[in-house]
Structures are given as C-alpha cells and as structure tokens.
C-alpha cells in the first residue's frame, strides 16, 4: 500500500471575497486555486499550510482553521492525494505575485469554477457557508471526475475514507 501524499490548501475569506491564486506552473497549472503544497518532513500540516501560503502569495495568516479533508484518486496512480483545507479571515501583508501563483480577490458570487479544478464546484458551497466537509473524488485525467463522495461534517475525522471503503464507495 502506498502512503497518501499530504498536501495543504488555504483559502483566505473576508466577507464577500475569497483570495485565489492563478497557478503559473506545476500541478494544476492554468487553474485558480487556494494556496498550498506538500507537507515537508518535520513540519505539522498546519505549519506547512502557513509556510506555503507565505511562499506563494507573501501573506501570513493570523489563525488557520482546518475546514476540509479531501482525498483524490487518479486512475492509474496508486498514490492518493490527501489535501487538508484551511481557512483564515485575517492576515498580515499584501497579497503579492510569486513564481508559482498570481493572487486575485474574487467575489463569492463570481468564483471562476470553469477555470478551477472540477471538484471545487462541489465543496466550495460548503466552505462558503462556513461549514466543514470531507470528500473523495476519483479522477480520470485532470478534467474528468468518475466518482464523488462528499459530506458536510461537524468535525473532521482523518479516517473518513475507512467509512467510504466500508460503504463500498472506493
Ligand atoms: C485534484 O483536485 C484538486 N483540487 C483542488 N482544489 N486542489 C488540489 C487538487 N489536487 C491538488 N490540489 C492542491 C493541493 C496543493 O495546494 C496544490 C498542489 O501543490 P503542489 O504540487 O504545487 O505542491 P508544491 O509543494 O508547491 O510543489 P512543488 O514543490 O513541486 O512546487 O494543489
């Protein structure tokens, strides 16, 4: 069994706007997304989220709250992605373009879903209403979702995929 690849994703939300970044290179190039990346050895998931946010758009979040856990399977790849989603409403610094991302504020009613990962249109509404979520998406390539399992949760449980397995979903 291959261990999941641990990743973070941070969405800064202030009232009616969300800070997204246009991915200039690497995984997800050409798409708008939150800020994040791989968890490195020796750091907690939350530390990784704060580090990636700062590296990719130059801001420091005051307090990151973990709001989502997403598992992604890509057909033909035995390694799943495990993305820990965080949010914050206050931060220090001015969002600034980096080598990897070009930040831009979006009104919550004009989120550019057509230029984002296709899973986002499913879980963003839960995020935008201030709730937590847990999900599994099976992709074929980077554009086609074959299977979706998503639920709103009170509390995040890191072994929700066990629930999906038991229920014959994965
Ligand atoms: C498959 O669906 C996805 N949807 C969304 N919304 N976000 C995703 C999806 N898969 C991955 N992500 C996020 C998770 C991370 O925030 C980034 C990917 O991080 P990256 O591979 O660029 O990580 P880095 O550490 O920055 O990588 P390098 O060291 O190679 O630059 O996308």
Could you give me the name of the CATH homologous superfamily? Answer: Nucleoside Triphosphate Pyrophosphohydrolase
Q: Report the principal-axis shape.
A: globular
What is the count of structural domains?
A: 1
Largest beta-sheet details: 8 strands, mixed
CATH class: Alpha Beta
| Strand segment count | 10
CATH topology: Nucleoside Triphosphate Pyrophosphohydrolase
**Ligand set:** the ligand COc1nc(N)nc2c1ncn2[C@H]1C[C@H](O)[C@@H](COP(=O)(O)OP(=O)(O)OP(=O)(O)O)O1
Order of helices and strands: EEEHEEEEEHEEH
Q: Estimate percent helicity.
A: 10-25%
Strand content: 35-45%
- Rg of Cα set: 15 Å
- Terminal Cα span: 15 Å
What are the key terms here?
alpha+beta, binds ligand LXYW25GO, globular, Nucleoside Triphosphate Pyrophosphohydrolase, 17% helix, 10 strands, two-stranded antiparallel sheet, 170 residues
